[in-house]
């Protein structure tokens, strides 16, 4: 297990009663980097990062925030046995300014990471629908987490209730996720998965999806592939999830105060 990295200057926020219109923003930092890393110069990329963060914190009315990054390989690489996790991603195609942008997020904005976890997991684990708003363009993050969260790629809020979040999860388990190299059941696409699930209530979906895997692969292989695919698709949502999958005991949420008058400066 790697060393737990936290910002040097920060404070631990114990959730308390807040103005109901104020939220703590939980920012998926991975996509921020990819949006800006192809700018002509490093300075333009850093300016773009600062502008995006200021914009999302202003729009979400967040007075505090926490930003997360993915560092190294996550626990899913050990789970994936059918095909390597994210095997279809190109290697070595990151521009030279990529590390500098990442350091900017860490040193100036206080973004952090926890070994073995993806930013997707961290924003979801720390998410409290009454206290926080997730800021991410990732469909899995937005649609596996209930209530209203902010898609900073499209500059819009996405509202999902608990039943919709569960239906999205089981649809993804059926069809897999080509972006991350997760195969699912062969020849089952989005339309087929939605048709199969549309008349089911959420509590019926796990057994239904498992049976579809068994029908396709047989009992032993079907159960194995179902379990593997579920663990790859499912975004961790509780500290108990994290402890079970990684053995890591997560600390309390650490946040930073948002100071819009000083763009890009934490302290």
Describe the overall structure:
With 267 residues, the protein is α/β, with parallel strands linked by helices. The chain has 2 domains: 21-161 and 237-250, 5'-nuclease (Rossmann fold), CATH 3.40.50.1010; 163-233, Orthogonal Bundle (DNA polymerase, domain 1). Helix content is 42%, strand content 12%. The chain contains 11 helices and 7 strands. It has helices at residues 29-36, 42-59, 76-79, 98-107, 119-125, 139-144, 162-175, 190-197, 205-217, 219-233, 239-246, and strands at 11-12, 23-28, 62-68, 132-135, 147-151, 156-160, 254-257. The strands form 2 sheets. A 5-stranded mixed beta sheet has the order 1-7-3-2-4, sandwiched between helices. The chain has a two-stranded antiparallel sheet with strand order 5-6. 35% of the residues are buried.
Topology readout:
Blueprint: E1 11-12, E2 23-28, H1 29-36, H2 42-59, E3 62-68, H3 76-79, H4 98-107, H5 119-125, E4 132-135, H6 139-144, E5 147-151, E6 156-160, H7 162-175, H8 190-197, H9 205-217, H10 219-233, H11 239-246, E7 254-257
Helix pairs in contact: 1-4, 2-4, 7-8, 7-9, 7-10, 9-10
CATH homologous superfamily of the largest domain?
Answer: 5'-nuclease
Number of strands: 7
Tally the structural domains: 2
Whole-number radius of gyration? 19 Å
Contiguous low-pLDDT stretches (5 residues minimum) are 1-20, 261-267
Structure at a glance:
The chain has 267 residues and is α/β, with parallel strands linked by helices. It contains eleven helices and seven strands. It has helices at residues 29-36, 42-59, 76-79, 98-107, 119-125, 139-144, 162-175, 190-197, 205-217, 219-233, 239-246, and strands at 11-12, 23-28, 62-68, 132-135, 147-151, 156-160, 254-257.
